[in-house]
Amino acid sequence: MLILLPPSEGKATPRRGAPIDLDALSFPALLPARQRILDALVEHCATAPDRAAATLGLGPTQATLVEQNAGLHTAPTARADRIYTGVLYDALGLADMSPAGRRRAATRLAITSSLFGVLRPTDRIPSYRLSGDVSLPGVGAVAGIWRQCLGEVVTETLGRGLLLDLRSTTYAAFWRPPRELARQVATVRVLHEAGGRRKVVSHFNKATKGRLVRALLEEGDAPRTPGELADVLSALGWDVELGDAERHGTRVDVIVTEIG
């Protein structure tokens, strides 16, 4: 089973640690793309900080993020699961998971990154700012670069198991499962039900996905189909509805009645 997570916009900044070693990261086939994007980002932020701020969608009060990007080659690193923060990662709570849960996380989780493609939670990276919809001088749209190489890596890693694709729309554009892989792919939509009506609530959507992944990792089940995933989640106490198979996978709706 492979669980694809989105990154977080907000990130923790380590105060000390060795600088980035691209050769040491998981999924080594992504090294050339990682090097291209990293070098382009650092150069743009170091040589044209004002233009870089506009490229990255940063305001006047966020100039330190441009400076941070300019120093990425030598910046301190920490494990990816300590760099990425935010609602989903807070709910996932890898730091206080059981030893067995953390071992499963190390082999089943892959974090999507506009700078690194995909990462394991244990990969050491610096804090950076680069959204998935950015185009960089000299290399173009980062999504376009990842579309050229990410699919082969994810497919090889997945094998015959289930892909639980929890990426947001921006990062889903890096690679979409082909039709022949769709039967192995599940996506999750979290719906809040109140007064007989259902709607997506963004904040709670992220929190619920984090809790859901935590429960799967702690329980240890490894469903191999979307239907098996729905059964496992139901057994874990979630209100689940299995959708129809679609071009890129099968949607699993998780219904919640309380927001918190």
What is the number of beta strands? 12
- What structural class do the secondary elements suggest? alpha/beta
Mean pLDDT: 94
Query: How would you sum up the global shape?
Result: globular
**Helix content class:** 25-40%
In a few lines, what is going on in this structure?
This protein has one domain (2-256). The protein is globular.
Brief descriptors of the model:
globular; two-stranded antiparallel sheet; 38% helix; eight-stranded mixed sheet; alpha/beta; 260 residues
Report on this structure.
The chain has 260 residues and is of the alpha/beta class. It has one domain. Helix content is 38%, strand content 20%. The protein contains eleven helices and twelve strands. It has helices spanning 31-47, 49-56, 63-70, 80-83, 87-92, 99-108, 142-147, 150-158, 169-172, 202-219, 226-235, and strands at residues 2-5, 78-79, 109-113, 117-119, 124-125, 135-136, 140-141, 163-165, 185-194, 197-199, 239-246, 249-256. Strands 1, 3, 4, 8, 9, 10, 11 and 12 form an eight-stranded mixed sheet that branches. The chain has a two-stranded antiparallel ribbon with strand order 2-5. The chain has a two-stranded antiparallel ribbon with strand order 6-7. A hairpin with a 3-residue loop joins strand 3 (109-113) and strand 4 (117-119). The mean pLDDT is 94.
